[in-house]
Write a structure and sequence with these properties.
408 residues, Rossmann fold, alpha+beta, six-stranded mixed β-sheet
């Protein structure tokens, strides 16, 4: 919903309560304020029907004469969650929200607090303090109601290996209080949806890792949840299995499911998530779209690989050319510098190197990656499993989705 209004006419919290939004904190700037750049003020509150509604007020560069308020409906809200295990503080005031019908990728290393966050939101674990709401329902006050609306797939397939795929899904259906006919019908639908019909009557112990994960995900969808929590759903899968799981997740998003996805895989977050929250040591340390996070790290970088004897000379030349500090990767004899100007700066570098009689082994421009973002924010690289080039996920170019789940 878009609403335009003069800046001086922004509503107070009480006025907004009368319009169906209680308790929101809404700034009220004066009409004479000057802005040197675009800025955004955000607020969030409970609507009268219990849903969480958020607003963004966008202030355009120049004199403020009005604002645009964009209202969002949140399916998941966590506020200041704290959880300790003995002397270990797994969550340290973590807050996040997931807009309805979107995918939030929660990215972080092992021990960052990803699984603890999911367990709290899925009502499997109580926080020491803080609050959490799923579909507008307090997970601490009414966990049973939350469980009726969510699906959960953990890091390891929670299926009975002695049963067939069919029997597992029927069993889950009955546990969710479907009658016998309804459980069988839903099992048939899900086996077809996840391309497991041919293996339906086989014991799970004969399934591949990818098939088990697909069946586990199918089991989490027995009740057609409004919100789905996927905790590192592709951990342990080979590249082919990971790509298959990505396709399944794409289809779920197209169907309107709200998804919170935790992952260690930078590429996975880049491909699947509408927004990414980076967490470390139990806190959200950055949040935004993949592109916006990359922009925070900086622009394109110029990378040049030379013979070892030319590394120092090349680093000095590039640093002077770009007026930025050169970063040297000793083992690779590669030098990188910030390259404002993009291709024009690349051409300048080629000419300067030629004039200095330095013949690069390789030269090119590199855009920041999520790996760069993670390194910049946390000071260490993500614990991502590197894959072989042949058949690896990094060789499979996949367009990113828009918010309706369609590939761009």
């Amino acid at each position: 919903m878009l609403i335009t209004a003069p800046a001086a006419a922004w509503e107070t919290p009480n006025e907004r309560a009368n319009n169906g939004m209680a308790g929101a904190i809404t700034p009220k700037p004066t009409a004479t304020r000057k802005a040197t750049e675009e800025s955004t003020a955000t607020s969030r509150g409970r609507s009268l029907n219990g849903d969480f509604i958020g607003s963004e007020a966008i202030v355009i560069t120049g004199e403020v004469i009005g604002v645009v308020i964009v209202s969002k409906k949140y399916a998941v809200v966590a506020e200041n969650l704290v959880k300790t295990y003995g002397a270990t503080r797994a969550l340290d005031g973590l807050s996040l929200e997931v807009e309805e019908g979107t995918v939030l990728g929660v990215l972080g290393p092992n021990g960052a607090g990803k699984t603890t966050t999911v367990r709290i939101l899925a009502t499997l674990l109580a926080p020491d303090s803080g609050s959490a709401y799923v579909a507008g329902i307090d997970v601490n006050k009414d966990p049973q109601k939350v469980r009726e609306l969510i699906g959960l797939s953990g890091q390891y397939a929670a299926v009975d290996e002695t049963l067939t795929g069919w029997d597992n899904l029927v069993m889950f259906g009955r546990l969710y209080h479907l009658n016998a006919k309804g459980a069988k019908e839903r099992a048939t639908q899900l086996l077809e949806q996840f391309s497991l019909t041919d293996a339906a009557r086989r014991p799970i112990k004969t399934y591949s890792g990818g098939m088990r994960r697909r069946l586990d995900l199918a089991a989490s969808l027995i009740i057609k949840p409004k919100v789905l929590f996927l905790d590192e759903p592709t951990t342990g899968l080979d590249p082919r299995g990971r790509l298959e799981m990505w396709d399944v997740i794409d289809e779920l998003v197209k169907g309107g499911v709200t998804l919170l996805l935790t992952t260690q895989y930078l590429e996975e977050a880049d491909q699947l998530a509408d927004e990414i929250a980076v967490i470390d040591h139990g806190r959200v340390i950055a949040r935004g779209t993949s592109d916006s996070l990359k922009k925070e790290v900086g622009g394109e970088r110029l990378e040049v690989t030379v013979e070892q004897s030319k590394v120092a000379e090349t680093a000095k030349l590039l640093s002077e050319l770009t007026q930025s500090k050169a970063h040297i990767e000793e083992g690779l004899h590669r030098i990188s510098v910030v390259a404002h100007g993009g291709s024009a700066r690349l051409i300048e570098a080629v000419r300067a190197l030629d004039a200095a009689q330095i013949s690069p082994l390789d030269i090119g421009l590199k855009r920041p990656s999520l790996d760069d973002v993670f390194m910049s924010l946390t000071g260490h690289v993500a614990e991502e499993i590197l894959e072989d080039v042949d058949g690896g996920a990094k060789n499979n170019k996949r367009g990113k989705r828009d918010k309706r789940g369609n590939r761009k």
